[in-house]
Design a protein that fits this description.
five-stranded parallel β-sheet, 11 strands, alpha/beta, globular, six-stranded antiparallel β-sheet
């Protein structure tokens, strides 16, 4: 257990039958960059049961926040969804991940493309003042099946827009684009299709993909993480990593179990 820190659950909120978020205490020695993930979990029969979870909280916040799917027969999430205030969770002592701005070549517009709980690392990044210093425009796109599944993202964005410090900072820079695939909504369709057809950019009144100015982060479903990189690569975009910054980065440590 020495690789993990025991933290206390501070709050739990269930957004839908399949989605919930929770906050927990944060060890003063736990450091991370916005967009990174850590191993978190529970002690089950004396052993740690862990999965990778992105921090939805920013690195300047005192508490940790996570956004999770509920999988009824999932080894971890079947248990994690039942946590309550005061319960103990395990948090790995080391954070990692590719969704950090240092893995991108400098640009002017940052596209944060997510589906489902892949929104979590971007909830952290849009709370980072440096992101607004480094980019002229930040587009946060979040794709879900049903309108109700957008609630957490809407809550995070609304909180920032009404925040005393962040409100004025993001007013002219952060563009939030929620879309759903299975219900009527103002934005309809898969993010992959909306990017490929230019519909997303038309809807928000901005120009289409430009390799000179656009930098992209991806976190979400396996289908999106397969299709969009292929689309970007066909247009000359290069994937970045810790050793070589690029035009786009992908987070593959995504929890759906």
């Amino acid at each position: 257990m020495s690789a993990f820190q025991k933290e206390t659950v501070l709050s739990v909120r269930h957004w839908t039958e399949s989605l919930f978020s929770f906050t927990a205490t944060r060890d003063p020695g736990f450091r991370f960059q916005n967009g990174q993930f850590a191993m978190i979990g529970l002690e089950v029969e004396g052993k740690p049961l862990m999965r990778a979870y992105s921090m939805a909280s920013a690195n300047h916040e005192e508490a940790l926040e996570f956004f999770s799917i509920k999988v009824q027969d999932g080894p971890l999430t079947s248990r994690l969804q039942k946590i309550r205030e005061g319960d103990i969770i395990l948090v790995g002592r080391k954070a990692t991940g590719t969704l950090i701005t240092g893995n991108l070549i400098p640009g002017k517009r940052l596209l944060l493309l997510s589906t489902g709980t892949g929104l979590a690392p971007f909830a952290s990044l849009i709370k980072d003042p440096d992101v607004y210093e480094n980019y002229e425009t930040i587009v946060l796109a979040h794709g879900c099946r049903q309108v109700s599944e957008l609630a957490y993202g809407e809550h995070v964005v609304d909180g920032l827009r009404n925040h005393e410090f962040f409100g004025p900072l993001i007013r002219d820079k952060l563009v939030y684009y929620p879309t759903v695939t299975r219900e009527p909504f103002r934005n309809r369709g898969r993010i992959t299709d909306l990017i490929g057809s230019n519909q997303l950019f038309d809807d928000i009144g901005l120009t289409g993909l430009d390799i000179e100015t656009d930098r992209i982060m991806l976190c979400g479903s396996p289908a999106m993480l397969e299709e969009l990189p292929a689309m970007f690569a066909a247009r000359g975009f290069v994937e970045g990593n810790h050793s070589q910054p690029g035009h786009f980065v992908i987070e593959k440590a995504f929890v759906e179990r």
